[in-house]
């Protein structure tokens, strides 16, 4: 069974790695990594393959950056050719990036000339498409990721969800319940797979910081970094927070471009207690998260990782597609005007050890493999 695992952008690599390793151990499965090239810098892509012990991508589409339509279109055109050439049985898309939607659309509409696989959907002549991390909704259609999630879930055959809210959202949208399976949170598989290496890393010591005495900051969402007023207010807040606790800020390429364009970089660099770095690889970044007192972010994955680890997290967004991180975890949403007072508040709280959300246990890839075995046995 040829299984394409689609990887495109930084947060995808942690989602395909555990599944690749689990499938590689099965004699019936031939996992193939397809990198669309949406992220291409060494430290946004290749470093993650090394850290997560993945081989170099078997297929690289090399699409690069562009507007949403350009990027989505380029991936669709390039991947459709690959599908006809390789005729995979299953295509697994993860998360919510442009390539997730693009590969879903490309795969769902092909029509293989030769029916040579037991697994292809009956009378359909195309690969089965599975969406891993299905059902998440921020209910904010100004977010490109929300459009990608809704459209991908409307099209995919298997919807593998991380939490009960995902199942409920899909059912409300009229999805056939038979397509939905709660498998858990695959990001936690990566974290557990790499835990020993992460714990040995101690990145904070390189920056001269003590465990539990610094904050980690990441921002890259267009809503936070593309608007000069918001970005500038965010920088002012970070400078104030850094007077209470030193901050490490690995800067995403989109954020760096805007900080430079709006001339905000010098203020951050010169304030003395904000350490600005290039984006860090998985192990080094997770080592910072493991040892920090507080995370300030707009990332999806960091909301989940901090919840799992019991670390206070402030998410600079009006909403989240991961509500369990708020109801069951350590995450609090905040606006750019509230961040300073909420950070002060968070610094009063120590780590909060709670039971992680159900099925956030490092066994998600295993559950997917079992589910696929069951599916094969029914073909
Ligand atoms: C994308 C995803 C977002 C995810 C994020 C993680 C979509 C719609 N957005 O956003 O959901 O959270 O990845 O980073 O799919 N760039 C580089 N080098 C790279 C990659 C990007 O310099 O390796 C620069 C380019 O100028 C590019 C810009 O960053 O135009 C944005 O990259 P892009 O992949 O379009 O979106 P992200 O903001 O990274």
Automatic annotation (TrEMBL):
GO molecular function, one term: isomerase activity
Chain coiled-coil ranges: none
Keyword Isomerase: yes
This protein's UniProt keywords: Isomerase
InterPro entries: UDP_GlcNAc_Epimerase_2_dom, WecB-like
SUPFAM superfamilies hit by this protein: UDP-Glycosyltransferase/glycogen phosphorylase
Domain of life, per lineage: Bacteria
UDP-N-acetylglucosamine 2-epimerase domain ranges (all copies): 22-373
PANTHER family: UDP-N-ACETYLGLUCOSAMINE 2-EPIMERASE
Xref: NCBIfam families: wecB
Protein family (similarity comment): Belongs to the UDP-N-acetylglucosamine 2-epimerase family.
Protein name: UDP-N-acetylglucosamine 2-epimerase (Non-hydrolyzing)
């Amino acid at each position: 069974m040829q299984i394409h695992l689609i990887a495109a952008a930084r947060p995808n690599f942690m989602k395909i790695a555990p599944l690749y390793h689990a499938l590689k151990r099965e004699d019936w499965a031939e996992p193939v990594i397809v990198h669309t090239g949406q992220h291409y810098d060494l430290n946004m892509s290749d470093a993650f393959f090394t850290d997560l012990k993945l081989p170099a991508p078997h297929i690289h589409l090399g699409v690069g950056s562009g507007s949403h339509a350009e990027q989505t279109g380029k991936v669709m055109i390039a991947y459709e050719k690959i599908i006809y050439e390789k005729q995979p049985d299953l295509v697994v898309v993860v998360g919510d990036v442009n390539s997730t939607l693009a590969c879903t659309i490309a795969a769902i509409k092909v029509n293989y000339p030769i029916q040579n696989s037991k697994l292809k959907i009956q009378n359909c002549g195309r690969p089965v498409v599975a969406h891993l991390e299905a059902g998440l909704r921020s209910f904010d259609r100004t977010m490109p990721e929300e459009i990608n999630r809704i459209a991908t879930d409307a099209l995919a055959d298997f919807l593998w969800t991380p939490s009960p809210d995902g199942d409920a959202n899909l059912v409300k949208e009229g999805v056939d319940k038979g397509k939905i399976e709660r498998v858990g949170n695959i990001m936690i598989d990566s974290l557990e797979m790499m835990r020993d290496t992460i714990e040995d890393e101690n990145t904070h010591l390189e920056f001269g910081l003590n465990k539990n005495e610094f904050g980690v900051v990441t921002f890259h969402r267009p809503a936070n970094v593309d608007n000069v007023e918001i970005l500038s207010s965010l920088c002012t807040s970070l400078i104030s927070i850094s007077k209470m606790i030193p901050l490490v800020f690995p800067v995403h390429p989109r954020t760096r471009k805007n900080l430079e364009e709006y001339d905000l970089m010098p203020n951050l660099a010169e304030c003395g207690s904000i350490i600005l770095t290039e984006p860090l690889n998985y192990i080094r970044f997770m080592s910072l998260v493991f040892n920090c007192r507080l995370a300030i972010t707009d990332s999806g994955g960091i909301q989940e990782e901090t919840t799992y680890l019991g670390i206070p997290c402030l998410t600079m967004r009006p909403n989240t597609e991961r509500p369990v991180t708020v109801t069951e975890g350590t995450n609090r949403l905040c606006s750019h005007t509230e961040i300073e007072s909420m950070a002060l508040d968070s610094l009063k709280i120590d780590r909060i050890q709670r039971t992680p959300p159900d099925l956030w246990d490092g066994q998600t890839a295993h559950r997917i493999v079992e589910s696929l075995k069951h599916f094969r046995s029914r073909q």
